[in-house]
Amino acid sequence: MENQNESEKSGIPKLKKITAEELIEKYKRGERDFKYVDLSNENLEQAKLENSNFTGAKFTHTNLKKAILENCNFTKANLESADLRGAILAYADFSEADLTLAKLNKARLVIGNREVVVMGEFSPEQFINSHKID
Description:
Strands 1-2 form a two-stranded parallel ribbon. It has a two-stranded antiparallel sheet with strand order 3-4. Helix 2 (20-28) links the parallel strand 1 and strand 2. By secondary structure, it is α+β, with helices and mostly antiparallel strands. It is 16% helix and 9% strand. It has helices spanning 6-10, 20-28, 124-130, and strands spanning 16-17, 37-38, 108-111, 114-117. The protein is built from 3 helices and 4 strands. The radius of gyration is 15 Å and the shape is globular. The protein has a single domain (1-134), classed as Pectate Lyase C-like. Mean pLDDT is 84; it is low at 1-8.
């Protein structure tokens, strides 16, 4: 088809921009599927969003400090420069996610059967490798 846009040609769905307020409202109504949403530059500090699917979502420069993100799926999500300091990330899946320049200090992870608190610099590669779901 000649009129296909670039996202259709590449097979990657187009991102849908939503605000933090819209996301929280949908979550409160019971929605948990937020694939391919664009939450760039939004403030989600202390948001409770556990058990949500954020596959392919965009969180560049998003404030997620102290957010509760347990059991979330961030597969192929873009979290470049996201602030995840103090976030609860237990059992979250970050497979193929971009965490370039993400702030992870004091984030709570579960690695194996142990809870771990990030207490310093933790590279995105270390984070992804320690947090993959096999």
